[in-house]
Amino acid sequence: MTSAATVTEGVDSPYALSHLDALESEAVHIFREVAGEFERPVILFSGGKDSIVMLHLALKAFAPAAVPFSLLHVDTGHNFPEVLAYRDRVVAEHGLRLHVASVQEYIDAGKLRERPDGVRNPLQTLPLTEAIQQHRFDAVFGGGRRDEEKARAKERVFSLRDEFSQWDPRRQRPELWQLYNGRHAPGEHVRVFPLSNWTELDVWQYIAREDIDLPGIYFAHEREVFKRSGMWLTAGEWGGPKGSESVETRLVRYRTVGDMSCTGAVDSDATTLDAVITEIAASRLTERGATRADDKMSEAAMEDRKREGYF
């Protein structure tokens, strides 16, 4: 009696997915799941690398059709000009609809008060939550990843927010076998994180594989910076430098992009994707831990903001 032939699928098998293929497939599935479950989804798009990868995945998920979601950017007024120019170019190139919620407009209207330190990232919550309510968005895609920060490490892919956009870890649902529960009551919405299982290195390797264009600040360039709280911040009209802080011209790049008031540059000579990937692979600090002043306001700064409705 002859036994049935056994087919062994090794790493060279055409049926074997690479690590990046598996992550891409998962994210595409999440985009399509949201399109099927929700009525008014929106993608948070700042022009940073994670939101750029997220938009690239959305374009793939629905090609050759158009992406069935609009974009939302919460503009602090202190964003890097290079990133805003990139954002506008991408929106025009793909014929997308962009909603902009302006922190400056809220300050001018007296709804928000400027912080003494000039940092505006914590002020994004009110414009974000009111934009969600105004446009009745029921699913909001974000580029958060679990490797970034401890509060994001316990976030679900489908993260339920109440009628005030607040996050309660105790109300989050299990997500066994990649089954996502999008049910929500009227007034509630779900934050969706397609890149939850990606790492910073995964993101950069995927950018290299897909040849995705990025704003120039992600690569080494000469910039006028000053040191504050151990970080190199960009000099600008937002309020730096002050007192004894002095401006230097250094060769730097940015690992993450918030706004100029709270995002630190890192010394780097990495001018290519391969050089950046090599640099990230050798790093022992997370991108937010090394470069974000807004995460250092307290031990639970990110979790406190998420409970209030932050990204």
Can you offer a commentary on this structure?
With 311 residues, the chain is α/β, with parallel strands linked by helices. It folds into 2 domains: 19-201 and 302-308, HUPs (Rossmann fold), CATH 3.40.50.620; 215-297, no CATH class. It has helices at residues 19-37, 49-62, 81-94, 103-108, 125-135, 150-153, 200-210, 273-282, 287-291, 301-308, and strands spanning 41-44, 70-75, 98-102, 139-141, 158-161, 189-192, 221-228, 231-234, 248-253, 266-267. Helix 2 (49-62) links the parallel strand 1 (41-44) and strand 2. The longest helix has 19 residues, at 19-37. The chain is globular. It starts with 18 loop residues before the first helix and ends with a helix. The relative contact order is 0.15. It comes from Streptomyces hundungensis.
Instruction: Write the element-wise H/E pattern from the N-terminal end onward.
Output: HEHEHEHHEHEEHEEEEHHH
What would you report as the Rg, rounded to the nearest angstrom?
20 Å
Fill in the CATH topology of the largest domain.
Rossmann fold
Level-2 CATH architecture of the largest domain: 3-Layer(aba) Sandwich
Q: What is the number of independent domains?
A: 2
Helix content: 25-40%
Main pleated sheet: 6 strands, mixed
Proportion of strand residues: 5-15%
Tell how many strands the DSSP assignment holds: 10
Count of DSSP-assigned helices: 10
Q: What would you give as the CATH superfamily of the largest domain? A: HUPs
First-residue to last-residue Cα separation: 62 Å
Shape: globular
Ranges where pLDDT stays below 50 over 5 or more residues in a row are: 1-10, 292-300
CATH class of the largest domain: Alpha Beta
Record the strand order, biggest sheet.
3-2-1-4-6-5
Mean pLDDT: 87
Region (Disordered): 288-311
Enzyme class: transferase
InterPro entries: PAPS_reduct_dom (IPR002500), Rossmann-like_a/b/a_fold (IPR014729), SO4_adenylTrfase_ssu (IPR011784), Sulfate_adenylyltrnsfr_sub2 (IPR050128)
Protein name: Sulfate adenylyltransferase subunit 2
